[in-house]
């Protein structure tokens, strides 16, 4: 397991983890063999998006290998690309211009898991897991067996509170679970799902197709037999997160509409990354980060350029949380439950 290295940010306002997550921005130059440094660790997951154009969201991880990517804005199966030649001790090295096109601007959200994946036999399905227990993050690869109530080990020390699952071998939706997604609605979050690649909400009409109405445990995820999360002989990748004091928070808040600002506190840190979704209403997923500035946003379910939607959300990062300063439905619909993943 890694040990946090934390520093006080300029101007105060909580500690900043420098060894488990980093948002990196850069401008492409089309140079093959170009290295990006300054990440502070060797990333195990790089989530990349073009800022000033429609080159989509590409998620590449060390478990599947640096030549394999999946795109959060569509249902496509994993594809082979030549974006990277390697993930390095302080960043990565490019192979070609796909996400390094000259003059174009990009952001890469870099996550540290546990390096080389290990076999995990905690579940009825053996999984390949790269887990950073200190940071509450793991990457899980598995082959479905089509059996209801199948389980897979996730490698973390606590139950995951936010989980994303994608078939890499087939064109299927991105299924997600969040512990707070059904606050104010009937049923529990494990009774339904949200789709990362769409604007869909989590509502009682979403039947228990993902976790078979069994919440994640400290060792395993439960899976239904549904083909999109556990199809027999199909390949899947899952990203799992849970709250870690002073570093990562999986939580939610209630939208206030035009009563502003809506200030969310109690995170225990100043966010550098914020993923948001209105789980009550049908709105975009939204990503904010400190590197681009909290006034700018991108949308995991859409390849649109930065701030390309009409519902740009005004948010500021505070020393112990964040404030929503607009009535935008995606992040502050009145009385709606807005779920989030925040990382220092």
Give structural attributes.
2 helices; single chain; mainly beta; 6-stranded antiparallel sheet; disordered N terminus; 344 residues; 7-stranded antiparallel sheet; 3 domains
Protein described:
The protein is mainly β. The protein has three domains: 21-111, no CATH class; 118-241, no CATH class; 248-343, no CATH class. 2% of the residues lie in helices and 36% in strands. It has helices at residues 227-230, 329-332; strands at residues 6-7, 16-17, 21-27, 35-36, 45-50, 58-61, 68-70, 79-80, 84-88, 91-94, 105-111, 118-120, 127-132, 137-143, 150-153, 162-167, 174-178, 194-195, 220-223, 235-241, 248-254, 262-264, 273-278, 285-289, 315-318, 321-324, 337-343. The strands form seven sheets. It has a seven-stranded antiparallel β-sheet. The two termini are 18 Å apart. Mean pLDDT is 93; it is low at 1-16.
Helix content: under 10%
Structural Rg: 19 Å
Whole-Å distance between the termini?
Answer: 18 Å
**Structural class of the secondary elements?**
mainly beta
Give me a quick take on this structure.
The protein is mostly beta strands and 344 residues long. 2% of the residues lie in helices and 36% in strands. The strands form seven sheets. It has a seven-stranded antiparallel β-sheet. Strands 3-11-5-6-7-8 form a six-stranded antiparallel β-sheet, with no helix packed on it.
Outline the secondary-structure elements:
Blueprint lengths: L5 E2 L8 E2 L3 E7 L7 E2 L8 E6 L7 E4 L6 E3 L8 E2 L3 E5 L2 E4 L10 E7 L6 E3 L6 E6 L4 E7 L6 E4 L8 E6 L6 E5 L15 E2 L24 E4 L3 H4 L4 E7 L6 E7 L7 E3 L8 E6 L6 E5 L25 E4 L2 E4 L4 H4 L4 E7 L1
Antiparallel strand pairs: 1-2, 3-11, 4-10, 5-6, 5-11, 6-7, 7-8, 9-10, 12-13, 13-14, 14-20, 15-19, 16-17, 16-20, 17-18, 21-27, 22-26, 23-24, 23-27, 25-26
């Amino acid at each position: 397991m890694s040990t946090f290295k934390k520093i006080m940010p300029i101007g105060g306002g909580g500690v900043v983890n420098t060894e488990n997550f980093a948002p990196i921005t850069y401008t492409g130059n089309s140079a093959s063999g170009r290295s990006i440094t300054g990440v502070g660790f060797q990333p195990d997951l790089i989530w990349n998006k073009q800022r000033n154009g429609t080159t989509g969201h590409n998620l590449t991880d060390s478990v599947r290998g640096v030549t394999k990517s999946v795109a959060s804005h569509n249902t496509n199966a994993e594809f082979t690309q030549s974006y990277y030649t390697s993930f390095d001790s302080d960043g990565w090295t490019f192979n070609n211009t796909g996400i390094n096109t000259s003059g174009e601007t990009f952001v890469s959200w870099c996550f540290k898991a546990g390096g080389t994946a290990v076999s995990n036999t905690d579940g009825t399905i053996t999984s390949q897991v790269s887990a950073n227990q200190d940071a509450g993050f793991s990457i899980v690869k598995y082959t479905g067996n089509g059996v209801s109530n199948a389980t897979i080990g996730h490698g973390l020390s606590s139950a995951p509170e936010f989980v994303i699952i994608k078939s890499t071998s087939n064109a299927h939706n991105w299924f997600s679970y969040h512990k707070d997604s059904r606050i104010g609605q009937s049923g529990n979050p494990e009774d339904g799902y949200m789709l990362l690649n769409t604007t869909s909400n989590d509502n009682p009409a979403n039947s228990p197709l993902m976790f078979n109405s069994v919440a994640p445990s400290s060792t395993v995820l439960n899976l239904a037999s549904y083909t999109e999360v556990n199809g027999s002989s199909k390949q899947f990748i899952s990203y799992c997160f849970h709250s870690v004091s002073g570093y990562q928070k999986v939580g939610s808040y209630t939208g206030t509409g035009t009563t502003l600002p809506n200030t969310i506190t109690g995170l225990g840190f100043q966010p550098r990354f914020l993923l948001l979704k209105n789980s009550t209403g049908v709105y975009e997923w939204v990503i904010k980060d400190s590197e681009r500035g909290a006034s700018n946003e991108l949308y995991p379910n859409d390849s649109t350029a930065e701030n390309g939607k009409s519902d740009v959300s005004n948010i500021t990062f505070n020393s112990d949380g964040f404030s929503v300063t607009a009535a935008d439905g995606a992040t502050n619909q009145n009385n709606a439950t807005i779920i989030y993943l925040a990382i220092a």
